[in-house]
């Protein structure tokens, strides 16, 4: 066994000038190098905040039989139930720090746990199974990262789903807190990255939907942090469907463009748009939840409409843009639900995703024979 002498310790709250936005942006752009090139990352896994420290161990129990004093420490394996509620694992920033670090030493309540690229283990030599570890394994051992590999998009989707469940103190950090990982992935994939979506799987990446258990959507985010076609624009958790999905594609990407605030081209955004060309249909959303192919009819189109945020009550005219169809699952169709930003402008914004089964529902409800093709700029 060799002993490495580590000369340098990097602590983010000390090494980034606090409350200095320019320094923060400069440093955020280097996160991928810091974590991926670190020898080991020490994780205060059970600490609630920056002041909690590494050690949360319970006090030793002291026993005295009159002649000798004994010290007893409780020892318990870190359970899945504990990892799922560990404060560190709830934080958005931790997601990439963990995936990028070659070795992580977790300070749990009763024991130390260690994870590296090959395995994870703990003082009682058991596994520390949790979702983060499974995703790390998929990321490290998964695809070749060539865009011809069909699992590339799927692994990214699983990563985004897991990441969007985590919390951020500053909502504006949604893209910056993932930018180190996006940087590393960009060099592996050789594809451009736009607001959380990849150039080579753009039409697949755009088919996210908001997942909420009680169907209550968070309100639209203010201030703006990402274009409406990006999952980073919403406050709720998101989900992607099963892969592969795009057996038949109806839509073409004409252009996609982003501009950024800082030096990182995976971080905080200034603007972003996408231009799509495909079959469209005029429709309406009534009371924020039901989708109508024709605003005059009383019956909503049968299918699953998932609004991106809490939509207004009343009738909202929308445009349905037909994106793709999959052959499995009865031939499910995916449509973006778009609304004009305002009457005087030509741009649209995404307000939801609509999924339906042409074979299982009344296909003629959306008469695509009547649909024209349209070029639409979505911001
Ligand atoms: Zn253990």
Structural description of this entry:
This protein is of the alpha+beta class and 379 residues long. The protein folds into two domains: 12-212, no CATH class; 213-379, no CATH class. It has nine helices and 19 strands. It has helices at 12-15, 21-28, 31-37, 80-83, 92-100, 131-141, 151-164, 176-189, 202-205; strands at residues 41-43, 61-64, 69-72, 103-107, 112-116, 120-122, 193-194, 197-198, 209-210, 238-239, 248-249, 252-260, 269-286, 290-292, 304-307, 315-325, 333-340, 348-356, 372-378. The strands form five sheets. Strands 11, 12, 13, 14, 15, 16, 17, 18 and 19 form a nine-stranded antiparallel beta sheet that branches. A four-stranded mixed beta sheet has the order 1-4-5-6, with no helix packed on it. A two-stranded antiparallel sheet has the order 2-3. Strand 13 and strand 14 form a beta hairpin. Helix 3 crosses helix 5, helix 5 (92-100) packs parallel to helix 8 (176-189) and helix 6 (131-141) runs antiparallel to helix 7. The mean pLDDT is 87. Residues 77-78, 111, 122-124, 126 line the site of zinc ion (ZN).
